[in-house]
Design a protein that fits this description.
Blueprint lengths: L5 E6 L6 H10 L4 E3 H11 L1 H11 L4 E2 L2 E2 L1 H8 L3 H25 L4 E5 L3 H4 L7 E6 L2 H11 L4 H8 L5 H5 L4 E4 L4 H18 L4
Parallel strand pairs: 1-5, 1-6, 2-5, 6-7
Antiparallel strand pairs: 3-4
Helix pairs in contact: 2-3, 2-5, 3-5
Bound molecules: dephospho coenzyme A and adenosine-5'-triphosphate (ATP).
Amino acid sequence: MKKEKIIIGITGGIGSGKSTVAKLFEQKGIPVYYADDRAKALMNENIEVIDQLKTEFGEDVYKNGRLDRAYLASMTFSNPEKLIKLNAIVHPAVFRDNEEWTKAQHSPIVMKEAAIMIESGSYRLLDELIVVSANEAVRIQRVLERDNTSREAVEARINNQLSEEERLKYADYIIENNLGLTELAQEVERVYQEIKTKYYIA
Ligand SMILES: CC(C)(COP(=O)(O)OP(=O)(O)OC[C@H]1O[C@@H](n2cnc3c(N)ncnc32)[C@H](O)[C@@H]1O)[C@@H](O)C(=O)NCCC(=O)NCCS
Ligand SMILES: Nc1ncnc2c1ncn2[C@@H]1O[C@H](COP(=O)(O)OP(=O)(O)OP(=O)(O)O)[C@@H](O)[C@H]1O
């Protein structure tokens, strides 16, 4: 199978290690679009997104001109209806931004890293989906060590995501990340070789 540009998604539950995996692919020379990071940037820069967020969540969602992420998170991850509204504002803007970015790339493989690619339906536009998987206890522990947050706040996000079992059903490739970073790098290399072989990439 020979395609002009192969688009590969990297997803996984909170704290699974998808950003770490994306960086390892980037080190191999693959351009990566970081949807979560771009979402945050657009929420601070895109006038339409800013206006819609203020209308939906109130002016206080911005403090000194910057999005108050903790405040917005506290409003949405405990209230599914509000989260649906937030997603409906942010996801179309990220979709357009990603399309522009993808068109501008000149690489046989490009990747997109996003937290809720299956839930949002954006996985349908991919050629391949990599799911990064780790046990829930490991994921929670890693996020607690990384962020200034609580177990309850992490669990609230998990409750708004697919279960690990459901997510894995969508995977073309699974990268296990319960062990150390050396093992993770080996997993990334294995999947990279499989993809290159499938698409006849040198
Ligand atoms: C509420 C916000 C501002 C909180 O920001 P914060 O810096 O605390 O979190 P960040 O965006 O880095 O996400 C961290 C993790 O939270 C989880 N998470 C984020 N957004 C969502 C969501 N819409 N649904 C379920 N889980 C989510 C993911 O596991 C993600 O990896 C932010 O998460 C947000 O705007 N989310 C809605 C837009 C979105 O879906 N972004 C992610 C993909 S484009
Ligand atoms: N195999 C590993 N060994 C040790 N630490 C790891 C491993 N994989 C990831 N980490 C660490 O765990 C934390 C979570 O990883 P990462 O940020 O890549 O996850 P993520 O899936 O992108 O998270 P989020 O959903 O919150 O955006 C980070 O601090 C990362 O450095």
